[in-house]
Amino acid sequence: MDVKYINPFISSFTNTVKTMMDLDVKTLKPYIRDETATLGDITGVIGFAEKKIMGSVALSFPKEAALILYEGMTGEREEELTPDVEDCIGEVANMVAGGAKTVLASQGLSFNISVPSVVVGENHTIRHRAETPIVVIPFLVEEIKFVMEVTMKIMD
Fold first, then answer.
1. CA angle in degrees (0–180, nearest 5) for 107-50-11
2. String of b and e for 101-121 (b: at least 16 CB within 10 Å)?
3. 83-106 and 63-74 are packed helices; what angle lies between their axes, rounded to 10 degrees?
4. Where are the domains of the chain?
5. Are strands 53-61 and 144-154 parallel, antiparallel or unpaired?
Protein backbone atom coordinates (compact mmCIF):
# COMPACT_ATOMS: atom_id res chain seq x y z
CA MET A 1 0.00 0.00 0.00
CA ASP A 2 1.32 3.39 -0.99
CA VAL A 3 2.46 5.57 1.92
CA LYS A 4 0.51 8.51 0.49
CA TYR A 5 -2.66 6.67 1.57
CA ILE A 6 -1.37 5.88 5.07
CA ASN A 7 0.15 9.26 5.98
CA PRO A 8 -3.24 11.06 6.14
CA PHE A 9 -4.32 8.67 8.91
CA ILE A 10 -1.09 9.19 10.85
CA SER A 11 -1.27 12.98 10.51
CA SER A 12 -4.94 13.04 11.43
CA PHE A 13 -4.29 11.00 14.57
CA THR A 14 -1.30 13.01 15.78
CA ASN A 15 -3.13 16.30 15.07
CA THR A 16 -6.25 15.08 16.89
CA VAL A 17 -4.30 14.04 19.98
CA LYS A 18 -2.29 17.26 20.05
CA THR A 19 -5.25 19.56 19.43
CA MET A 20 -7.98 17.83 21.44
CA MET A 21 -5.91 16.39 24.30
CA ASP A 22 -2.73 18.48 24.36
CA LEU A 23 -0.64 15.30 24.34
CA ASP A 24 2.50 14.57 22.35
CA VAL A 25 2.55 11.31 20.44
CA LYS A 26 5.61 9.60 19.03
CA THR A 27 5.14 7.62 15.81
CA LEU A 28 7.17 4.41 15.57
CA LYS A 29 8.10 2.32 12.51
CA PRO A 30 5.09 0.85 10.66
CA TYR A 31 4.91 -2.84 9.79
CA ILE A 32 2.55 -5.33 8.16
CA ARG A 33 0.36 -7.28 10.59
CA ASP A 34 0.59 -11.05 10.30
CA GLU A 35 -1.51 -12.16 13.25
CA THR A 36 -5.24 -11.77 13.94
CA ALA A 37 -5.11 -10.61 17.56
CA THR A 38 -5.10 -6.89 18.14
CA LEU A 39 -2.74 -5.26 20.61
CA GLY A 40 -4.92 -3.64 23.21
CA ASP A 41 -7.83 -3.69 25.63
CA ILE A 42 -10.07 -1.34 23.67
CA THR A 43 -10.31 -0.66 19.93
CA GLY A 44 -12.22 1.96 17.95
CA VAL A 45 -12.94 0.86 14.37
CA ILE A 46 -14.24 2.84 11.39
CA GLY A 47 -14.97 1.31 8.00
CA PHE A 48 -14.98 3.32 4.79
CA ALA A 49 -16.12 2.63 1.26
CA GLU A 50 -17.14 4.09 -2.07
CA LYS A 51 -16.92 2.96 -5.69
CA LYS A 52 -13.12 3.19 -5.91
CA ILE A 53 -12.04 2.46 -2.33
CA MET A 54 -12.82 0.25 0.62
CA GLY A 55 -11.03 -0.29 3.91
CA SER A 56 -10.94 0.40 7.60
CA VAL A 57 -8.93 2.02 10.35
CA ALA A 58 -8.67 0.66 13.88
CA LEU A 59 -7.10 2.35 16.90
CA SER A 60 -6.18 -0.16 19.62
CA PHE A 61 -5.14 0.93 23.09
CA PRO A 62 -4.10 -0.72 26.31
CA LYS A 63 -6.35 0.41 29.15
CA GLU A 64 -3.76 2.88 30.48
CA ALA A 65 -3.43 4.72 27.15
CA ALA A 66 -7.20 4.89 26.66
CA LEU A 67 -7.60 6.41 30.12
CA ILE A 68 -4.89 9.01 29.38
CA LEU A 69 -6.64 9.99 26.14
CA TYR A 70 -10.00 10.15 27.90
CA GLU A 71 -8.63 12.42 30.62
CA GLY A 72 -6.93 14.62 28.04
CA MET A 73 -10.13 14.98 26.06
CA THR A 74 -12.63 15.44 28.91
CA GLY A 75 -10.56 16.64 31.86
CA GLU A 76 -12.09 13.80 33.90
CA ARG A 77 -10.22 10.84 35.34
CA GLU A 78 -11.49 7.26 35.13
CA GLU A 79 -9.94 4.13 36.58
CA GLU A 80 -11.73 1.62 34.33
CA LEU A 81 -12.95 1.36 30.74
CA THR A 82 -16.39 2.86 31.32
CA PRO A 83 -19.02 3.53 28.63
CA ASP A 84 -17.79 7.15 28.57
CA VAL A 85 -14.24 5.98 27.81
CA GLU A 86 -15.62 3.70 25.09
CA ASP A 87 -17.49 6.66 23.57
CA CYS A 88 -14.28 8.71 23.67
CA ILE A 89 -12.30 6.04 21.82
CA GLY A 90 -15.06 5.78 19.21
CA GLU A 91 -14.99 9.55 18.77
CA VAL A 92 -11.19 9.55 18.39
CA ALA A 93 -11.52 6.91 15.64
CA ASN A 94 -14.23 9.04 14.01
CA MET A 95 -12.05 12.18 14.07
CA VAL A 96 -9.06 10.30 12.63
CA ALA A 97 -11.11 8.81 9.79
CA GLY A 98 -12.75 12.17 9.09
CA GLY A 99 -9.42 13.98 8.97
CA ALA A 100 -7.90 11.37 6.66
CA LYS A 101 -11.03 11.47 4.48
CA THR A 102 -10.54 15.21 3.88
CA VAL A 103 -6.92 14.75 2.79
CA LEU A 104 -7.63 11.69 0.63
CA ALA A 105 -10.54 13.48 -1.07
CA SER A 106 -8.06 16.14 -2.20
CA GLN A 107 -6.13 13.25 -3.83
CA GLY A 108 -9.25 12.12 -5.69
CA LEU A 109 -10.30 9.36 -3.26
CA SER A 110 -13.65 10.25 -1.79
CA PHE A 111 -15.51 7.80 0.43
CA ASN A 112 -18.12 7.49 3.14
CA ILE A 113 -17.21 6.47 6.67
CA SER A 114 -19.22 4.25 8.99
CA VAL A 115 -20.35 4.90 12.51
CA PRO A 116 -17.53 3.90 14.88
CA SER A 117 -17.58 0.50 16.55
CA VAL A 118 -15.77 -0.07 19.83
CA VAL A 119 -14.52 -3.48 20.95
CA VAL A 120 -13.46 -4.00 24.57
CA GLY A 121 -11.62 -7.00 25.98
CA GLU A 122 -8.15 -8.38 26.46
CA ASN A 123 -6.64 -10.05 23.37
CA HIS A 124 -9.68 -9.32 21.22
CA THR A 125 -9.60 -9.79 17.46
CA ILE A 126 -10.35 -7.25 14.76
CA ARG A 127 -11.06 -8.56 11.29
CA HIS A 128 -10.67 -6.02 8.52
CA ARG A 129 -12.89 -6.64 5.49
CA ALA A 130 -10.55 -5.47 2.73
CA GLU A 131 -8.39 -8.36 1.65
CA THR A 132 -5.23 -6.31 1.52
CA PRO A 133 -2.23 -6.03 3.82
CA ILE A 134 -2.92 -4.49 7.22
CA VAL A 135 -0.45 -1.71 7.94
CA VAL A 136 0.21 -1.28 11.66
CA ILE A 137 1.51 2.06 12.90
CA PRO A 138 2.73 1.91 16.52
CA PHE A 139 2.62 5.05 18.66
CA LEU A 140 3.78 6.06 22.12
CA VAL A 141 1.97 8.42 24.47
CA GLU A 142 3.60 8.93 27.85
CA GLU A 143 5.75 5.86 27.04
CA ILE A 144 2.69 3.59 26.58
CA LYS A 145 2.56 1.79 23.23
CA PHE A 146 -0.62 1.45 21.17
CA VAL A 147 -1.35 0.90 17.48
CA MET A 148 -3.33 2.10 14.52
CA GLU A 149 -4.19 -0.43 11.82
CA VAL A 150 -5.10 0.69 8.31
CA THR A 151 -6.17 -1.45 5.41
CA MET A 152 -7.33 -0.12 2.09
CA LYS A 153 -8.20 -1.51 -1.31
CA ILE A 154 -8.19 0.87 -4.27
CA MET A 155 -10.29 -0.45 -7.18
CA ASP A 156 -9.77 0.58 -10.78
1. 45
2. bebbeeeebebebeebebbbe
3. 80
4. 3-154
5. antiparallel
Q: Is 105 helix (H, G, I), strand (E, B) or coil?
A: helix
How far is it, in rounded angstroms, from Cα 60 to Cα 133? 17
When computed from its CA atoms, the radius of gyration of the chain, rounded to whole angstroms, is 15
In angstroms, the CA 57 to CA 148 distance is: 7
Write out pLDDT tens, residues 70-112: 999 999 999 999 999 999 999 999 999 999 999 999 988 889 9
With contact defined as beta carbons under 8 Å apart, do 89 and 68 qualify?
no
Q: State the CATH architecture for 3-154.
A: 3-Layer(aba) Sandwich (3.40)
